Amino acid sequence: HPKSKIFIFDQILTDIGDNQSIENQLSTYSYRLKNMKYFLENCDKNTLFLIDEFGTGSDPELGGALAEVFLKEFYDSGSFGIITTHYSNLKVMASELDYMDNANMQFDSETFEPLFKLITGEAGSSYTFEVASKNGIENFLIDKAKEKVDLDKVRFEGVISKLQKERIKNSEELNELKKLQTGARIKMDENELLNEKLTNKLSKYNLLYEHEKKTINIGNKFSTLVDSYHKHGKKRRLISEMFNIIEIENKKKQKKLTNDKNLTTKEILKIKDESKKDFLKIKMKKKLNKKVEIKFSVGDTVKIPTGKSEGIIDSIKKNKAIVNYGNFKTQISLTEIELVKSK
Q1: Which residues pair with 311 in a beta bridge?
Q2: Residue 225 near residue 238 (C-beta atoms within 8 A)
Q3: Which of 78, 124, 152, 199 is most buried by a 10 A CB count?
Q4: What is the CB neighbour count within 10 angstroms for residue 53?
Q5: What is each CA distance from 200 to 4, 197, 256, 279, in whole angstroms?
Q6: Which of 321, 324, 325 lies closest to 337 in space, CA to CA?
Q7: CA-based nearest residue to 60, from 80, 81, 90, 34
Q8: Is the same domain home to 253 and 295?
Q9: How far is CA 221 from CA 36, 224, 254, in A?
Q10: Would strands 320-324 and 310-317 be described as parallel, antiparallel, or unpaired?
């Protein structure tokens, strides 16, 4: 993680696992107390301690109280540590002290399988009653157990459990929202790119239009001169007017030499080719999207809109018709014919 920090410690103290020994007359709790004594004597600001199931091995209430005292001593010594525990009083203590914090590993609220996600700033639930129910313990037995536990503790565990479930739900919703945002961002980028392409293409078409307009205008001028020559037969006037037109156009061309938007012959041909392709695409799309509004029947006289020959429909299958033109028959789409006369 980019915010992670690594520290150098003079010593690392651990209390992990169960080292009870009949031979040495050590119970689990006795062993842990020996470790705690050593920790209390040696923990300082350059110490890292790791304790698993802190305070277990004795009466939960008494062991929890002693564990709370030990933890406060470790805290006051300025040492660093990570402990795991099911004791609610230690969770409360961690939330009250400035330099101590809760954390929990998330579990699926339905299956109680681990999600392998560490959440800091929030105490974890032991899911005692939920796990019991999940493993087939009768509800009336669980209810009896709840009656024997301090009401505040049950409520505390319930709140933690509810918070964790809500966090998981919120996390899932947040992930879904991020996916939607990512999709929207991609779509927006695609639209911007498409808009840029369309704007560029429109600009080129405008330049082509201006070029074609200019060409037509010059052609009209020369056509007028030719008509005038045929009418009056004045060659000198014709030549004079032609040179005059050429001179005017040359002056216009000189003014535009520094303009980057002038089109070369190669560019003009390229734009024309692109416009022709675009036109064919649009035409094909319209053709595919066109719906047959007129219902044709066998025996109807039809023709192709661009042609004059008329034929009679011999048969219709799906969206195609066999049209008889007398000397030959052809199959054609219903979208490509128009009705001349019903049978």
Answers
A1: 302
A2: yes
A3: 124
A4: 18
A5: 48, 5, 20, 17
A6: 321
A7: 90
A8: no
A9: 107, 5, 20
A10: antiparallel
Q: Which domain holds residue 129?
A: 11-182
* Residue 120 and residue 98 share a domain: yes
Residue 283 lies in a domain: no
Per the structure block, which two tokens stand in for 20? 């009870």
228-255 pLDDT, tens digit each: 777 777 777 777 877 887 777 777 766 6
Domain boundary among 158, 182, 206: 182
Q: 149 with 195, same domain?
A: no
The continuous run of DSSP H or E covering 329 comes out as strand 329-333
Domain count, the chain: 3
pTM above 0.70, yes or no: no
Angle between the N-to-C axes of helices 151-232 and 88-96, in degrees from 0 to 180, rounded to the nearest 10: 60
Q: What is the per-residue pLDDT across 125-147, written as a single tens digit (0 to 9) for each? A: 777 777 788 888 888 888 888 77
